[in-house]
Structures are given as structure tokens and as C-alpha cells.
Amino acid sequence: MYNLQSSVALLLLFGQNIAAQNSSWDHSLYTSSPGVFPSPNTTGIGWEDALQKAKQLVSQLTLEEKVGLLTGEPKGPCIGNIAPIRRVGFNGLCLQDGPLSIRQATYASVFPAGLAAASSWDRDLIRQRGEYLGAEFRDKGAHVALAPVAGPLGRSADAGRGWEGFSPDPYLTGIAMKETIEALQGAGVQACAKHWIGNEQETQRNPTVSPNNRTIEAVSANIDDRTMHELYMWPFADAVKAGVASMMCSYNRLNGSYACQNSKALNGLLKEELGFQGYVMSDWGATHAGVANIEAGMDQDMPGSITFFQAGPSYYGQNLTNAVNNGTVPMSRIDDAAHRIMTPYFFLGQDQDYPLIDPASGSVNILGVQPYLDTFQFGEANIDVRADHADLIRKLGSAGTILLKNTNNALPLNKPRNIAVFGNDAGDPENGLYSLSLTGNGDFEQGHLSVGGGSGTGRLTYLSTPLDALKARTKEDGTLLQWNLNNTLLTDPTPNAAFGAIFPYPDTCIVMLKTWASEGNDKVSLLPDWNGTAVVEAVAAYCNNTIVVTHTSGPIVMPWADHPNVTAILAAHFAGEQSGNSLVDVLYGDYNPSGKLPYTIAYNESDYAFARITNSTELRLTEDPNAWQADFEEGLLIDYRHYDYYNLSVQYEFGYGLSYTNFSMSDVKVHRLAAQNLTARPADAGTIPGGNPLLYDTLYEITVKVKNTGSIAGDAIPQLYLSQPVDALFGRTPVQVLRGFEKVLLGAGQTKTVTFALQRRDLSFWDAVQQQWIIPAGQFGVRAGFSSRDIQVTSGFTAL
Ligand SMILES: *[C@@H]1O[C@H](CO)[C@@H](O)[C@H](O)[C@H]1NC(C)=O
Ligand SMILES: *[C@@H]1O[C@H](CO)[C@@H](O)[C@H](O)[C@H]1NC(C)=O
Ligand SMILES: *[C@@H]1O[C@H](CO)[C@@H](O)[C@H](O)[C@H]1NC(C)=O
Ligand SMILES: *[C@@H]1O[C@H](CO)[C@@H](O)[C@H](O)[C@H]1NC(C)=O
Ligand SMILES: *[C@@H]1O[C@H](CO)[C@@H](O)[C@H](O)[C@H]1NC(C)=O
Ligand SMILES: *[C@@H]1O[C@H](CO)[C@@H](O)[C@H](O)[C@H]1NC(C)=O
Ligand SMILES: *[C@@H]1O[C@H](CO)[C@@H](O)[C@H](O)[C@H]1NC(C)=O
Ligand SMILES: *[C@@H]1O[C@H](CO)[C@@H](O)[C@H](O)[C@H]1NC(C)=O
Ligand SMILES: *[C@@H]1O[C@H](CO)[C@@H](O)[C@H](O)[C@H]1NC(C)=O
Ligand SMILES: *[C@@H]1O[C@H](CO)[C@@H](O)[C@H](O)[C@H]1NC(C)=O
Ligand SMILES: *[C@@H]1O[C@H](CO)[C@@H](O)[C@H](O)[C@H]1NC(C)=O
Ligand SMILES: *[C@@H]1O[C@H](CO)[C@@H](O)[C@H](O)[C@H]1NC(C)=O
User: Which SUPFAM superfamilies would you find in this protein's record (predicted)?
Assistant: First the structure.
């Protein structure tokens, strides 16, 4: 693509590489996206037999029928629908939300959110969550689960959807994506990795209308090529490598061009570079053109009509048929899209004995739309698909609960005499068990938050609240349990108001805080909702054993963290339907906490300012259609990469979390598996899903010994961080990046050896000039420990 002979090109290329550097940020480089055409055909790598079946089926279809596979049926029974073509024995596709539950369905489980699952750092539990989710989608007759989420990755702490995905660290998210996708698809359900890509904020995610009725385009995520590869694409590469069936293109623009019609992102990065063999569907309403979308590589338009859930004008449908008939779009592009859509269906055996759609699991429930009863086939209504999944939900809820502070032996609780519970997060929700609304009808004042809002929510069948679970547990020990759940009363300035009716004074005070978040809205503050900060202060002023529990959508700031009367802090996020039981298991030591922070808790809101969402009053009133520009100037330096690079102290670092026992680490060893003639650049070994297969070769193994030095059994989570050699040509490089973790159960006194495998990609930089992953020359630092700042042992190697 580049001509290295030309000095003009060299200058341009130099700009490409140092673009990750803030000092040289040049917005003019981000005002257009290169065109990458034509859209590559699928070759069915890994799915060869299924591709033949797909081709066989598609070859029998008329143009209108093919286009039907590419266009949602807006009035079907599911959140997304592809109409059946009975003539060829195709029963249609049912697509359902979302990442933590089959969202609208009755009698389905609500699992811990992605962020809570990632906090467990437990591959096995994450995989089991995916298996059970898959089983529930399948049993409800859903062919496609609109899950999992790797975008937003978590650039901005205030992003409204951060909790749906896993972690701002791409390595941790990538592993969670792989485990979830393999598990969902293992259950026979197509996964849909979303949202590709740069979907890091909700604010202005869609076009709006200005005061003078002009169309103001969606925010443009402007991301340099290295950052794109090393951060935002990384977990999606893992998704493609795991064989994900579909990907959802996002609402935002990229370098000024809508993600669903950005040929560089879809044809170039996804289908050519990553070798993605499945299909790209639009986010709901993210299509803005038609011909430009299909040419750029978007295979399927959802929900299929310009107006949601109403039959009517479509950018695909008849428009696409016309565009083929008048010669604008080649039939081969339609064929390829149809092949891509039908191949995973055959690969997963969805043409055989697939359960019929439960009619009580679709949009009919929320919108009062009549499904096309004569078009789609239905099974039994309201079938209970939960099986024994609550056991896993309870365990994963505990495993994802992070013990941030524990002084004076506050925890685990040991038959306390007198507990008081404070805060509006503890008890029953005041209004129903379903929080769809994008404007916050789940943001009730009273009641426990176990899930966020929007398409990522779930319909609870029951909810174990912390108060209910504590009532049951305290009864066993004869403990007095009292509570005040009214945050207004709790923060009344009258001295001691919080304790009003509580008598005698509790020996243990548990304060429960929450922060709501939902698709469609970013957060305006990183303080807990409902004056939660003041609630902690009001209780801690009078109770010298104050245990704070947070159920949040992501990072909050904790100005009270070092308060001497705050003896313990537990961060639990959105833990799903067993939330109360999961918490009580940790509080009482039935589960020895092992969760670790999947992000950083800094001291002040201003500490997150380096990558907050793009927003201002001026932008809200703009008449410039192009005004919303999110320049990702921080490049690679998000979350811990930022705090490490600028050597800033933080409240609780990435990877941190305590246990009721203690661990030590020793004996780090570096084992080279790579041949001595290792080259910086991988040989060209073709493309498999995930890219060049050599990127996934294990080149090194690092081993460490981990010992439980305490007196009870517990799970350690040793972590491996890698410091890559710094080369100024590449701009700002993180001080260290996560490149390994394991969860190991150790009995008291027990020692185990843990092995971390380093693949070629783990060592490499993305070189924007060579358009290649390159292993840098120089010394790599190996740093292993129990958090990003609790490094216990170090070593190093030179790879080349
Ligand atoms: C956006 O622009 C940057 C700088 O020109 C370029 O490196 C990157 O590849 C572009 N990305 C897309 C998706 O167009
Ligand atoms: C896709 O395959 C069709 C049919 O074989 C062919 O005509 C078309 O050129 C191919 N497109 C690309 C981009 O290779
Ligand atoms: C914008 O359009 C709406 C309805 O289409 C109309 O009521 C309103 O007067 C218009 N405002 C301006 C400033 O033109
Ligand atoms: C085709 O798309 C245009 C928008 O570009 C829309 O106005 C029109 O109604 C669509 N036609 C059909 C038949 O859906
Ligand atoms: C072909 O049809 C498409 C979709 O209706 C339309 O956008 C395009 O302008 C048409 N092109 C020609 C040359 O008629
Ligand atoms: C909380 O207490 C205040 C003050 O007594 C009262 O006005 C408010 O209605 C109570 N809130 C709830 C949710 O009960
Ligand atoms: C929060 O609590 C403080 C301390 O009691 C009080 O001064 C303030 O008015 C409360 N704020 C809100 C929004 O209720
Ligand atoms: C801690 O709690 C005790 C009551 O047990 C109280 O007297 C003291 O003032 C509190 N300390 C702080 C710093 O609020
Ligand atoms: C906490 O306060 C209680 C009385 O309220 C007192 O008995 C106890 O010693 C105090 N604990 C500490 C660690 O100060
Ligand atoms: C965005 O800015 C507007 C205007 O200043 C403000 O009202 C709104 O709360 C902001 N939204 C977020 C999520 O910060
Ligand atoms: C980039 O540099 C400017 C000027 O030094 C500074 O104000 C800004 O905060 C920096 N941005 C980032 C993301 O580091
Ligand atoms: C490196 O050495 C191995 C074994 O000696 C050989 O098979 C391989 O082809 C060599 N690779 C390169 C890139 O020279």
C-alpha cells in the first residue's frame, strides 16, 4: 500500500507511527477513512462444509429472497428477525438481546454483568456463564445471542455501557470474549461480538437534530492505527479467532465515517486483516445509507426498517434489490452476504431440531406489536429455561466480588451480635423487576441494583437482595438485624440522624451504595448515586466498624476509603439475580474473596479527565453537523496504562483485591520456546480467523511459584505484566501491560507452580508503517505479582 521510495510517503508514514503521541496529535489526519474495496468474499475457513450448504441454499433463492436474508423483518417476534423461506426449508432467524440474559424473556436467568464476571478473573466460571446463557437462548428458540461486548472497552470511566463488557484491559477482555463465544456457540447459539468499533460513549452515539433542525452527525471516534490494533481491536481479534458467527457494527463514526459504512473498518480491518468469515449486522438503526453499507461490508441491516419495529422504508430490502437490478451493487456482494449469514446457521446445526421461539420472549412483550403468527413458528410460551443455573450465578457473583479494604478483622463476619444495614441499595426494588428504559426507569430510589438498563438488561424472575440474604443468614446466628434504607433520612444534617430508630448501637454497620447506568446515557458523575458519599460519611461518623458495599456500573471515587471507621470495602458491581446471596457468602467467609479490580479506582473524578466522554453545552447547541469529534489523544494510555505512565498514585490499582488469606510468589523463570532465529516480523502464513496464525504461536513460557502463607484455603490470582522495550518511533508505550493471569486454589501452606504463555502477538507492537505486528528489539521486562502495583518477582529477556 505504501511506497517506501517516496520521501513524501515516508513523512506521511512517520506521522502514522507517532500518531499515538499526544504532542503530535493532528486532527486533520482523522477527517476521512481510506476506502477499502471490494468487500472480500468469505472462503469459509473452518466452516468449509457449512459454507457449501449455505451456497447450495442461496443458489436456490431469488434476488428478493436473498435480500430478505440481509434485511431484518421489523415486526417479528424477536428483537431482530430474519423471515423464514419455507420453500427451501429455512425457518428464519431469531436474534435476541443480550450479554447477561435473554433480555426480555420470562423465566430466564439474570447472570452477573460482563464487568462482574471479568472481576472474577476466572476463565472457567466465565465459560460456564456462557454455556448456561447459550442453553437458555437455545431453549427459548433464539438463534443469535447479541453478546458478548468488547466495545465499549472502557476508555471512559463515565461511559454508560462499560458494565456490559468486561474490562478496559484488552487482554482480559479478549480472554473473556473467547471463553464466552466458544461457550455460547458450543451450546448451538450464534454469538454476536459487539460493537465494532470505537463505541466508547453513549452521548451523541446517534445523529441528532440541531436547534435549527439540521442533522448533527454522531460522534466520530478518531483513533490512531496502533491504538486501534493494540487496544480496541485486540479483544475482537480474539472473538474472530474463537469463530464468532457475527459482529455488530456500532453507532458512532470513525474518522468521520459511520462505522456501519466504514470500508476500512469492515472490509479492511475485520474481513481482510482478521479474516472474519461470518456476517456483520448493523446496530439497531446504525445504517444510514444502503448501497454504501453493503459495499463497505455490512451484511445485514437491523432491525430492517428505518423506523424501528414498523414495517416500512428500509435502506436494505427493496432499495438493495433495486441497487442490484440497476447495476450499482454486484450480485456477488449479495451472495457473499447471504453465504456469510447462512454458514454459521449450518455450522451450528441450527437447521436441525432447533427449539421453536417462545412467544413470550420477544418485543411483543414490550411494544404490544403482534408477531407475524403466520410467518414465524412458535413453541410453548413462558417456558422456564433456568435449570440449576442459579448455583453458578451465586458462585460467580461471589467470585466477582472484590475485597478492597479489610482492617481490624472486620471481615469475615463472625457471629456478630448486632448488624445495621444502611442505604437504598439493600432492599427490594420499588417498581418491578425489569429495567429496559434508556431514560432510567430502573433508576429507582429504593431497591437493590443487580443489573443495568437498556438492551443489556434482563428480566428478573426473582431477586435475592442483600437485605433478604442477610435476614436469612443472621437468623442462623441469632444476630440482631436492623436497617435504615432511606438515604434522605440517612443524610439529614441533624447529628446522629442516620441511627434514628436503631438501638442498641450496632457493632457492625453495612452501608450499601449503588450507581445506575444504561445504554443511551453516559454518567454525569463518578460519585455513587443518591448521595451515597454522604451516607457513608454519616454512618462512619458514629460507627467505628463501617463496611461499605458497592453495586456500581464501573469505577466510582471513594473519598471515604481511608476513613479510619471504614473498616472494609467490597465492590460487587451488577451481580445478577443471586446478588444478595453472593454477597453474604463473601461477608461470612463461605466464599473466600478472590475478585480483582478489572479497572483502576483513582482518588478524584479529575483523575479520570484524560479520557472522559466528549460532551459540552456548546456541542449540544451546535449547528455544525461535524462538530462531535472524540479524538482519542491518549492513545494506548487508558486506565492503568495512564496512571503508570504518568507515575500517579491511585486509590486501588488495576488487578487489586484482597483475600481472607495471604499469598507469596517466588522463583520466576523464563522459558524460551521460540527458535533462536526468531524474526521481528511474522512470516506470511496466510490468514485464519484472527489474522496471521503465527501471531498466536507461544514463544515464551513464564513460570512462578505461588504459596498460600495463611491458615485457610483461598484462590490466588497471580498476574503477569510485560514491559515492552520503548521505541520513540512508536509514540508513548505503556510501562507495562497485562499478558497473563491464572486463578489457583491453594490450601493453607500449599505451593503451586503457575505457567503463563506468551504468544507472538503478546510481545509485538503494531507498526503502522509496515502494517504489521513487530517484535521490538531490546529488553522485555517480566513482572509477576498480585496486582499491577504489587509486583513480587521480576525477570527479563530479549526476544530477537
Ligand atoms: C483513522 O485515521 C488514522 C490517522 O490517519 C489512521 O491511522 C487510521 O487507520 C484511520 N482509521 C480508520 C478506521 O479510518
Ligand atoms: C466473490 O466471488 C464472486 C463469485 O465467484 C466473484 O465474481 C467476485 O469477484 C468475488 N469477489 C471478490 C471481492 O473476490
Ligand atoms: C423544526 O422542525 C419542527 C417540526 O418539524 C418545527 O416545529 C420547528 O418550528 C422547526 N424549528 C426551526 C427552528 O425551524
Ligand atoms: C430507500 O431508502 C430511502 C432512504 O435513502 C427511503 O427514503 C426509501 O423509502 C427507501 N425505499 C424503500 C422501498 O424502502
Ligand atoms: C440504483 O438504485 C439505488 C437504490 O435504490 C439508488 O440509490 C441508485 O441511485 C440507483 N442508481 C442508478 C444508477 O439508478
Ligand atoms: C425518605 O424519607 C424522607 C424524609 O422523611 C421522605 O420524604 C421520603 O419519602 C422517604 N423516601 C422513601 C423512598 O421512602
Ligand atoms: C447529601 O447529604 C448532605 C449531607 O447531609 C446534604 O447536605 C445534601 O443536601 C445532600 N444532597 C442531596 C442531593 O440530597
Ligand atoms: C469513629 O467512630 C467513633 C464511634 O465509634 C466516633 O467517636 C469517631 O468520631 C469516629 N471517627 C471519625 C473519624 O469519624
Ligand atoms: C468501636 O466502638 C466500640 C463502642 O462503640 C468500642 O467498644 C470499640 O472498642 C471500638 N473499636 C475500635 C477499634 O475503636
Ligand atoms: C453533557 O452536557 C450537557 C450540557 O452541558 C449536560 O446537561 C449533560 O449532563 C452532559 N452529559 C453528560 C453525560 O455528561
Ligand atoms: C495533550 O497535551 C496537551 C498539551 O500538553 C494537554 O493539555 C492534554 O491534556 C494532553 N492530552 C492527553 C490526552 O494527554
Ligand atoms: C529458523 O530455524 C528453524 C530451525 O532451525 C528453521 O526450521 C526455520 O526455517 C528458521 N526460520 C527462519 C525464519 O529462518
Answer: (Trans)glycosidases, Beta-D-glucan exohydrolase, C-terminal domain
**For the chain, how many structural domains are there in total?**
3
**Ligand 4 centroid to 299 CA: how many Å?**
18
Pocket test for ligand 3, best of 213, 216, 621 (most atoms within 8 A of CB): 213
Atom 9, ligand 4: residue with shortest CA distance: 313
State whether 413 and 360 are in the same domain: no
Binding site membership of 677 for ligand 12 (Cβ less than 6 Å): yes
Q: Give the range of the structural domain holding residue 758, as residue numbers without chain letter.
A: 661-798
The continuous run of DSSP H or E covering 94 comes out as strand 93-96
Q: Quick check: is 633 in a domain? A: no
- Taking CA atoms only, the protein residue closest to ligand 10 atom 11 is 524
Which residues have CB under 8 Å from 792's CB, separation 6+? Answer: 664, 665, 666, 704, 784, 785, 786
Query: Is 330 near ligand 2, meaning CB less than 6 Å away?
Result: no
User: Which of 507, 567, 506 is closest to 536 using CA atoms?
Assistant: 567
Residues 119 and 241 placed together within one structural domain of the fold: yes
Catalytic-role residue among 97, 122, 158, 283: 283
pLDDT per position as a tens digit, 736-750: 999 999 999 999 999
Over residues 538-593, the pLDDT tens digits come to 999 999 999 999 999 999 999 999 999 999 999 999 999 999 999 999 999 999 99
225 catalytically annotated: no
Residue 214 CB partners (closer than 8 Å, separation 6+):
623, 625
Examine residue 644 and state whether it is found in any structural domain, yes or no: no
* Nearest residue to 27 via CA among 201, 218, 221, 208: 221
